Fold:
Amino acid sequence: MKRKSVSYAKWGYIFLAPFFIVYCIFALYPLISTFYNSFMDYVVDRSTVGGGWGTSSASTAKETISFIGLDNYKDALSSNETLVQSFWNTVIMWIIGFIPQIAVSLLLATWFTDLRLKIKAQGFFKTVIYLPNVIMASAVAFLFTCLLQRNGALFSFFEPLAGKDLSLLDKVWGARGTVGFINFLLWYGNTTILLMAAIMGIDPGLYEAAQIDGASPSQTFWKITMPLIRPILSFVLVTSMIGGLQMYDVPSLLTKDNGNPSGKVMTLIMEIQQRKDSDVGKACAVCVIIFIVSAVLGVITMIGLDDSKDKKKKKRRKAA
Structure:
């Protein structure tokens, strides 16, 4: 009597189904809807100033939807709009936070994985480093707002001592630097853990061989560690860049959602939030632009950090 074989493929599809169902409902459909609405003159008036999220009943809301082609994209990228300025604001604040983030994370990851240093209480230090990532970004932003705003705790303490205005949030680079520092504080721990995992995956024999050959720690870092953790570095760079373009909660809370001073802290997502009801079509166009820019930058970064070409060149040299 033949036994019935178990169809493992069927169970694989069953376990994968919830992910694809949730993805299609909460990610794929909104993405397609965003692309569709970006070609529409889609305005929702809820009987409030600027068409915001009012408390009016749904029956009073008026929707105006008509196809206008690429007009939303033209308007979003026109000189009269602030989208381009908001893009550069976002990039600048991301760079301010990312450069120290990757530098400090590389340094800490190298220290914690170096067996020669014999650092004690590593578990405690790793927990402390990762702890800010657990705290909500909005809570950290609110804390810094209370400390640094005019008449805040630090402002009231240091202004009488210095005898001059020390309000960082009222200055362009002070506000930008604060946003960058908060982003660094929140994410350097997560980056450190990722880089530590990458370094620990390197064969220890490579380091032993380099040490026997008389290589210095800096030579070992640049010739062994950096090339071998390049895939994780590219992952960190791409995900950080995409997250940076979606920056919203920290600058919004620090500037009370107006992007001041002089609109130099306004981000792309803050632009979308300002148009979420009064001009849905243009907000969707901005979303699509962010999606395209993120995809292009991600592809360029992955190609730039791809080491397959270097490996092919080395094989050709050996063959020659």
Summary: The chain is about 70% helix and 0% strand. The CA atoms of residues 62 and 254 lie 33 Å apart. The two ends are 62 Å apart (CA to CA). Confidence is low (pLDDT under 50) at residues 48-59.
